[in-house]
Task: inverse folding
């Protein structure tokens, strides 16, 4: 990452007074049965097709405070493609017969939650509100 971009990212993080807290990668394999692959310097990717039967990829970048969710249909066309910045917390929620990835967001103007339910079936919900 160029030094100016890193400075701006660090400055933005300081202004918001937050960081992106992520679970230990072993939590994904325990709860979802998939490994979090290292796909960049600070990025990890979860390929969920083997456990959902759907072509779903979830990536997160701890330093960039961002997540991407891509869901494609069987012909490879995009069904859902979400990219969000300002992530503050990623957690695995495993209760009530449901397992989901929950990502919380906060920017200077908005707060939100992105939920990717993996079990018992794949489902996506997203909420974004003015702060």
Result:
């Amino acid at each position: 990452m160029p030094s100016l971009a890193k400075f701006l990212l660090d400055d933005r993080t300081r202004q918001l007074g937050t960081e992106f807290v992520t679970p230990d990668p072993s939590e994904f394999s325990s709860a979802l049965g998939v490994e979090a692959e290292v796909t960049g310097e600070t990025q990890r990717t979860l390929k969920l097709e083997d456990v959902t039967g759907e072509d779903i990829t979830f990536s997160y970048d701890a330093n960039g405070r961002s997540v991407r969710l891509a869901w494609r249909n069987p012909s490879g066309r995009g069904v859902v493609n979400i990219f969000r910045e300002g992530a503050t917390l990623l957690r695995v929620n495993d209760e009530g017969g449901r397992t989901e990835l929950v990502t919380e967001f906060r920017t200077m103007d908005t707060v939100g939650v992105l939920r990717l339910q993996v079990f018992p079936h794949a489902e996506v919900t997203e909420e974004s509100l003015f702060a």
Q: What stands out?
A: The chain has a mean pLDDT of 90. The radius of gyration is 15 Å. Strands lie at 37-38, 43-47, 55-61, 66-72, 78-85, 87-95, 98-106, 110-119, 123-130. Residues 3-16 form the longest helix (14 residues).
